[in-house]
Amino acid sequence: VEAFPAVQGSVPWMNNSAIPPIQAGADKTKAASYVAHGDAMFQIAARYGSAQVPDAKLKLKANQTRVSGLGTVHYFEDFNEQDNASGFTGDAFAAMASADYDGDQMRLGDTIGVKNADPNAKLVMGGLSGKYPTTQWVQSITDFLDAMRTWSTANRGGSFPADVLNVHLYSFSAGN
User: How much is the pTM?
Assistant: First the structure.
């Protein structure tokens, strides 16, 4: 059994826990708007991933043990069911995933994103839940992924900012 954390939501100091997790007035389709989220993903991967990160790059409270490269987590998920979260669109999520994956191809710096903390780590795209009824599910998932791909083509040269696609299918009755 291998567990992986799903980094869900935002924090109170960031625009009153806004979703998507950006500062007020920031462009939700720009990877730079998610630098704080990508930084948090870096710190989580630095501690629990498989690579040792220089101590100077760790952000810890004075009473926390200064350690990295514990090797206990290999997959990191960067949201959950964002396709049904108010304000998230495929292009906005792609921008956040780009920061979370590799610091928007390191344009945001080398301490942003899971790959910059641990090149062997895998970023799991936050799970898509799709739209229901079931007849709309496939199209809604496809539309979201297409928007992510379009953003990635325009902003990352086609490099998709996730190693694992994650899709949830709910069955509400025997006929579904």
Answer: 0.94
Concatenate the DSSP letters of all residues of 3-23 into one string: ---B--S--TTTTTT-SS---
Give the whole-angstrom CA distance, residue 159 versus residue 3: 26
DSSP string, 33-81: GGHHHHHHHHHHHHHHSSS---GGG----TTS----------EEE--BS
Contact 31, 50 (CB under 8 A): no
Tokens linked to 64: 């926390």
Q: Which of 36, 35, 60 is nearest to 47 (CA)?
A: 60
- Residues 15 and 23 sit within 8 Å (Cβ to Cβ): yes
Tell me: the pLDDT tens digits for 34-66?
A: 999 999 999 999 999 999 999 999 999 999 999
Residue 108, amino acid: L
